[in-house]
C-alpha cells in the first residue's frame, strides 16, 4: 500500500483539509485570471475575483500578520479585478435603467444614461489596461513557487495555532458593534449624513467578511456557524442595494451635468429619483431600523 493509498483510507487531517481548500481556490483563481485576461468576460472577471476574495479570507484566518507575503499579492490582484468588475456591474445597471427609460418613453433620460454608459466604458477601459498590465506579474511562476513553499513549510504550524471558529466569533462581535454604531445615525431620513452612510458601508463590509468566512472555511467550522453564510449573504444584499443606489448617484455627481451635456430639468428629475430610491431602500431594509423605527 502506498502512502497516498494509506492516506485515502483514513480521515484527512486538519492540515490536509486546509491544503485541499486552499489549493482549490488557488487553481480556480489562476485559471479564471488567465481567462479574464484573454477576453475580459464579465463572468471570468467575477469568478477570478470571488476565488481571490476567498483566498484572502482563509489567509487572514491563518496568517493575520501576513508573514507569508502572499496576502499583499492576492490583495493587489483583487483590487485590480474589483475595479473592472465594479465597472461591469455599474454599466449593466445603467443599461437596465436605460432600457426602462425607453419603455417609459423618456428620451431625455435615455440620452443621459447613454452618456453615463459611454463615460463608464472609457473608465473601464483604463481599468482593463491596468489589469492586463499587473495581473500577469502577480500570477506568474514566481507566485506558484511561493505558494508551494507556503503549503510545505508554513501551513501546518499555522493550522495548529489558529482556530477559524474563534475568528468567526470575533467577526460576529465586530458586526454587532458596527450595527450598534449605525443606530441613531439614520433617525432623520430627510437628510442622512455622510457619516451615517459611511458607517452603513462598514457594516456591509463586516457582513461580507462573515459571509465569506462562513463559506470558505465551512470545512473547519462548528455546526453552529453553518447557516451564517446564507444569513449574512442576505444582510449584505440588503445593505448592498442601498450602497449601489448611492454609488449610482455619487457617480453621476462626480461626472457632472455639464460633462454629460444634459439639461438641468432632466438632471434634477433623474438624480431626485435616485435619491428617493436610496431612502426607499433604507426604509425597507430589515437589517437596521431607520427613521422612526425602534
From TrEMBL:
Pfam families linked: CHAD (PF05235)
Domain CHAD per the UniProt entry, residue ranges: 1-294
Record-given protein name: CHAD domain-containing protein
Annotated organism of origin: Paenibacillus agri
Lineage of origin: Bacteria, Bacillati, Bacillota, Bacilli, Bacillales
Amino acid at each position: 500500500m502506498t502512502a497516498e493509498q494509506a492516506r485515502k483510507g483514513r480521515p484527512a487531517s486538519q492540515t490536509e483539509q486546509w491544503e485541499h481548500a486552499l489549493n482549490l481556490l488557488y487553481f480556480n483563481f489562476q485559471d479564471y485570471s488567465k481567462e479574464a485576461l484573454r477576453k475580459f468576460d464579465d463572468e471570468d472577471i467575477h469568478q477570478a475575483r470571488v476565488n481571490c476574495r476567498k483566498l484572502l479570507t482563509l489567509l487572514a484566518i491563518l496568517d493575520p500578520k501576513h508573514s507569508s507575503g502572499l496576502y499583499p499579492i492576492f490583495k493587489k490582484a483583487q483590487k485590480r479585478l474589483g475595479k473592472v468588475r465594479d465597472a461591469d456591474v455599474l454599466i449593466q445597471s445603467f443599461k437596465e435603467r436605460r432600457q426602462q427609460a425607453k419603455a417609459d418613453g423618456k428620451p431625455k433620460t435615455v440620452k443621459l444614461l447613454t452618456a453615463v454608459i459611454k463615460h463608464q466604458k472609457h473608465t473601464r477601459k483604463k481599468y482593463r489596461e491596468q489589469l492586463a498590465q499587473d495581473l500577469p506579474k502577480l500570477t506568474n511562476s514566481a507566485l506558484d513557487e511561493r505558494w508551494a513553499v507556503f503549503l510545505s513549510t508554513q501551513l501546518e504550524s499555522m493550522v495548529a495555532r489558529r482556530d477559524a471558529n474563534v475568528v468567526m466569533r470575533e467577526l460576529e462581535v465586530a458586526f454587532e458593534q458596527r450595527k450598534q454604531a449605525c443606530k441613531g445615525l439614520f433617525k432623520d431620513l430627510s437628510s442622512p449624513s455622510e457619516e451615517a452612510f459611511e458607517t452603513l458601508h462598514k457594516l456591509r463590509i463586516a457582513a461580507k467578511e462573515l459571509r465569506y468566512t462562513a463559506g470558505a472555511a465551512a470545512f473547519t467550522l462548528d455546526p453552529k456557524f453553518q447557516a451564517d453564510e446564507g444569513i449574512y449573504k442576505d444582510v449584505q444584499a440588503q445593505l448592498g442595494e442601498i450602497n449601489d443606489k448611492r454609488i449610482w448617484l455619487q457617480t453621476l455627481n462626480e461626472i457632472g451635468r455639464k460633462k454629460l451635456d444634459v439639461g438641468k430639468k432632466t438632471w434634477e428629475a433623474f438624480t431626485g429619483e435616485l435619491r428617493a430610491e436610496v431612502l426607499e431602500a433604507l426604509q425597507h431594509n430589515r437589517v437596521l431600523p431607520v427613521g422612526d423605527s425602534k
